[in-house]
Specification:
This protein is mostly helical and 269 residues long. It has two domains: 128 residues, no CATH class; 122 residues, no CATH class. The protein has twelve helices and no strands.
Length: 269
């Protein structure tokens, strides 16, 4: 993020974008999804767009034809992105990370024009972070330099502060923690799940995903509600869509962080 009076991009946001870029480079793009499962892509993208319309524009009743056009627009113009980047783009726009993009200017409506404005801004934001990441990679040979040590120190300080913040949560829930929390706590050796622990977590993460789907269902259209109910029913039979599977993975990581908080609250006092 710019330094002209605004805070820098937090490490967590940079890592989320980096993870999405990594998935795209690895082949998990919207284009690849479309080539393999075109029908499922439409359903998954529509679900993401409905969530964005509801959560970030306050518009729960957008017409289906708008979402149909939006899906085609994304598949044509932003096929290089990972599906997870759609909601991330709106979250960053709502948080003010994109200069000149104001979701309030659309007065609670969701349009393809708004979508394009948000994704173009996100594309440029993403490109800048990728450029910064590559610049940092080119500096790895100078890890012993004072500047490199300072960067490492800044990251270490952020992680220590994040750990303190997590352990200060009074009644933490899955919405208070992120996948990135799991990633950096694992890297630090704070979380180390065994295979048995991962298997034991299966039912809990499944129940969390189902609860969150039911929550998102409240403002969904009748057609979308049927789709979401079908997604849950398929999940009961072990037939997970890519979107459901991704939610399960993320839910498991967030639950692991909650378990870590519960286990370490007294230890870190």
């Amino acid at each position: 993020m710019q330094t002209d009076g605004k805070p820098r991009t937090p490490a967590g946001i940079s890592s989320e974008v980096a993870e999405c870029v990594s998935r795209s480079v690895g082949g998990a793009t919207i284009r690849a999804f479309r080539d393999e499962m075109p029908d499922q892509l439409s359903l998954t993208l529509t679900a993401e767009l409905e969530a964005c319309a509801r959560q970030y524009t306050g518009c729960p009743n957008t017409r289906d034809m708008v979402f149909d056009e939006a899906v085609e627009f994304i598949a044509d113009q932003f096929h290089f992105l990972n599906i997870g980047e759609i909601r991330l783009a709106f979250r960053l726009a709502a948080a003010g990370y994109f200069d000149g993009v104001n979701l309030r200017a659309y007065y609670g409506t969701f349009t393809v024009g708004m979508l394009g404005e948000v994704l173009v801004a996100y594309r440029d934001f993403r490109a800048e972070l990728v450029k910064q990441a590559r610049r940092m990679e080119s500096e790895t040979a100078a890890l012993d330099s004072g500047e490199a040590r300072k960067k490492q120190h800044d990251m270490e300080a952020w992680e220590r502060n994040r750990i303190k913040a997590l352990l200060m949560l009074h009644e933490p829930t899955a919405s208070n923690v992120t996948v990135y929390d799991y990633e950096f706590l694992t890297r630090r050796g704070e979380i180390a799940l065994t295979d048995d622990e991962k298997k034991a977590m299966f039912q809990r993460r499944y129940e969390l995903v189902v609860r969150e789907i039911y929550r998102d269902m409240e403002d969904a259209t009748a057609y979308r509600k049927r789709e979401m109910l079908n997604e849950i029913e398929q999940g009961k039979q072990g037939k997970y869509t890519e979107g459901f599977r991704a939610k399960m993975i993320a839910a498991g990581k967030r639950l692991a962080v909650l378990d870590w908080i519960e286990k370490n609250k007294s230890v870190h006092k």
